[in-house]
Write a structure and sequence with these properties.
- Helices cover about 20% and strands about 30% of the residues.
- It is built from 8 helices and 25 strands.
- Strands 18-17-16-19-20-21-22 form a 7-stranded mixed beta sheet, with helices on both faces. It has a 5-stranded mixed beta sheet with strand order 8-11-10-13-14, with no helix packed on it.
Amino acid sequence: MKWIFFFFFSLAGMISHAQLTKPDDKNIMVIINVKGTDGIAQFNVRVEFKGPGDSTQKIGYTNSRGIVTLFLPINTKQEIFLDGKKITDYQVPNLKYHTTGMTYTWDKIKANNDDIFKEMPDTTYVEPGKDKMQKANSKMVLLSFHFYDYNYKNLDDEKIVIEGKKSKKIIIAKTGKDGKINILLPKGDDYFLHFTYDQYFDTLYYEMDNSIRNTSISIQYLGSKELARIAKEKEERIAAMELMRKEYEEKRKVEREKEMLSEKEYMKVELQTVPHQQYRVFEEVLKRNRNWKNMLIVTDITGSMYPYIASVLLWYKLNYLNHPLLNMVLFNDGDGISDQLKVIGNTRGIYGTKNISYEKMLDFMIDVALKGNGGDGPENDIEALLFARKNYSDKNEIILVADNYSNIKDISLMSKLNIPVRVILCGTDDFVNTEYLNLAYKTGGTVHTINEDITQLIHVGEGKSIVIAGKKYLLQKGKFIPIKSS
């Protein structure tokens, strides 16, 4: 006996499965139509999906129209059986709220699509308005994309690139004003979906079979235009930060020379001066979080942080006797070596100490600070955290005191951290640096500013946002990005 299956999107004859009635963020809806070679609908055919190691079988029986609907967990591999006979494997796409239809034949099918790939140019361009006449066939699936932002506005003129993993074929397309574009994609290859600012945003795969597939894919995305605006804003902020840093250093130099003090003498006065309220971030955060015990404090001690370090030192002076297990790690981003010689993961300039007297801590901070010169803006935060974790592994509260205006130089090492990091951010008047939000989110930690404790980051869902100091930050593909409030 042979079966003919085809892709469609009619909901006629749909039956519920596992109490689901529509796709959600964990399951796609698969509509299957079974017909014989004579075109007559096949009634009461047992259709079964079985995932490797999955004790829960997805089983349904076709109705009088030959239709059955099942729900499959996204991004899983399934085996498909008809009346107990396996017909093929199926990779469930990693797409939320997705509906598709499918059919398979028992006829022997061609194992690959070499002829199609051979005929394709290396790069294919698809423009809106010229994509409407494309039709799916047994060798090519028709993907109907719809892109919209988090305010549900269509993303027009959005450039997407689809890259074949094995074939190396490239398809470049742009959406129309409705945020839509149709793309005809050869089966039998893995494909990467790229945006201008998000390479490898997602993967697609459609196996070789004789089915006719028309698949609708809706993707919610911030949009390249908005990301370009954010990137420009970030560049302007970095430029302003560098100017502010230079002005601060010049002001210090003038004041130090006026007082006729050496750098060490001036720093000793500077760090013991009671800081202005705006710099007392560390004290305010610790005042709100008195339950933190066995603290391991990891502190950026480069030049721009001196006013905030004075707050750390003041707190230490008043509290170190009450925290006998407290340890301190300071990092100066490389002990003054040139930026060109700094190696990710081995920048160095990291020093630690156990609980010591206030006078010794003051000298320790000055010595570490004087070994470095700050150099470039980004700092080796992750290297310092890994150093702290390795040398003080019995501590259960790792607290990073970070410069909000400096990016994380070695953020690529973040996956090596296996303990929550509490991030105290200094200088958050206008924004929160999302690199530190992502550090806390990825490690299951928290973020703290002079006025707020953001403790529920780990519970923020994909596509959801949080508000910090009146600014909104959206979680997209596991990373926070700043967005405009709607």
